[in-house]
Write a structure and sequence with these properties.
With about 350 residues, the chain is of the alpha/beta class. The protein is built from 14 helices and 13 strands. The protein has 2 domains: about 200 residues, NAD(P)-binding Rossmann-like Domain (Rossmann fold), CATH 3.40.50.720; about 130 residues. Helices cover about 40% and strands about 15% of the residues. Strands 3-2-1-4-5-7 form a 6-stranded parallel beta sheet, sandwiched between helices. α3 packs parallel to α4 and α4 packs parallel to α6. InterPro entries: NAD(P)-bd_dom_sf, NAD(P)-dependent_oxidoreduct. One of its GO terms (molecular function) is aldehyde dehydrogenase (NAD+) activity. This is NAD(P)-binding protein.
Length: about 350
């Protein structure tokens, strides 16, 4: 029986966990799922799900090794941090030790951030397909982004440890998640809460069109990938194991126009039209994002072409039209559920 280890602190992973344990047939039904948590509160929240709850400090290498080895983990789905290479190193080394003791193949699924493949994210090569030699190109970039550095560590260390790795650059996520923990995404709720607080919807001086995915479609991708692994299907991994789970683009100015009208109709902002941010510094301060990443978050577009993800058989259901039509639901979700702050680069797959 395969044993899967996931960290549900980011709600995107909570949604993945909820989908895993809801399966009544297929390879996931027979899998033994463990959920790594950081706090006692999370232990209590997830204790009734019927999964093995492991409270562990993922930054503690010895604790991680003990958790992985003692719980006989074969697959790790990692969404705890896209920027902390120490966490991924600890998890991959633990999997390597588990492989040595069990003699079985082990897998590491790493969640990254898609904006690092935009010009604003330091990507100089233009259009990129997930079937391109991405790893080699990333190694060429001298001033590597911390997210990129962590991804390189994943590929190199996993190979050295005999662990099969997959790199998932997650685009902008939206929609209400499922599971027992946080349920909101990062960017859209940040814009909504900021607009409500300051009574105005802001947009950047440059329009951006980032790649996007609804949380339900993202979860479906992780489920599909994990099922392929459990069925031992020969799919791209390691240096070729990049997957772009992208369903459509999102045009920020169109989003801000819709948000301004919807928030004004609720009496939450003063005007039904957005204004331009006075400065990037103010945008970073109000939204709660790091100043050095604010242009990438607010204005990037990128030219990512998903191939591997669709070759698996992934079929996302959401497009830009349905997303724009759902923005009033996004506002409602923030008003109902917005209790925990998140950071976009720590939790790439998050749906807090």
């Amino acid at each position: 029986m395969a044993r899967i280890f996931s960290s549900p602190a980011p709600p995107g992973t909570c949604s993945i966990l909820a989908e895993f344990i809801s399966r009544t047939s297929g390879p996931l039904k027979a899998a033994n799922v463990s959920a790594a948590v950081r706090s006692e509160g999370q232990v209590q929240s997830l204790s009734n799900l019927g999964v093995n709850i492991v409270q562990v400090d993922v930054s503690n290498e010895l604790a991680v090794k003990e958790a992985v080895v003692s719980n006989e983990i074969d697959i790790v789905i990692h969404t705890a941090s896209a920027v902390d290479s120490h966490i991924v190193s600890a998890l991959i080394k633990a999997l390597g030790q588990r492989r040595e003791s069990s003699g079985q193949e082990n897998y590491f699924i790493h969640s990254s951030v898609a904006t690092i493949f935009s010009a604003e994210g330091g990507w100089p090569f233009g259009e990129v397909r997930d079937t391109d030699p991405i790893f080699e190109k990333e190694k060429e970039i001298e001033a590597a982004h911390p997210v990129r550095k962590t991804g390189i560590v994943v590929t190199e260390l996993a190979k050295a440890q005999g662990v099969t790795s997959f790199n998932i650059p997650v685009p902008q996520v939206y929609g209400r998640g499922s599971g027992e923990w946080r349920k909101l995404s990062v960017s859209i709720p940040a814009y909504i809460r900021t607009s409500i607080k300051h009574k105005v919807v802001y947009k950047f001086d440059k329009d951006g069109s980032p790649h996007s995915v609804h949380i339900s479609d993202l979860v479906a991708f992780y489920v599909l990938l994990t099922e392929k692994i459990l069925q031992k299907e020969p799919i791209p991994s390691g240096e070729k194991g990049y997957y772009f789970p992208i369903s459509h683009r999102t045009h920020w100015w169109a989003v801000m126009e819709r948000l301004a009208k919807a928030l004004h109709a609720r009496g939450l902002v003063m005007e039904p039209k957005p204004e331009v941010w006075p400065s990037d510094d103010i945008a970073a301060e109000y939204l709660g994002f790091q100043r050095r990443h604010i242009r990438a978050i607010g204005t990037s577009s990128g030219q990512l072409v998903p191939v591997n993800a669709y070759r698996l058989g992934w079929q996302p259901k959401w497009d830009e039209e349905t997303f724009l039509a759902s923005l009033d639901d996004e506002i409602q979700a923030v008003q109902e559920l917005d209790t925990v702050k998140s950071t976009v680069f720590d939790n790439p797959a998050s749906n807090e």
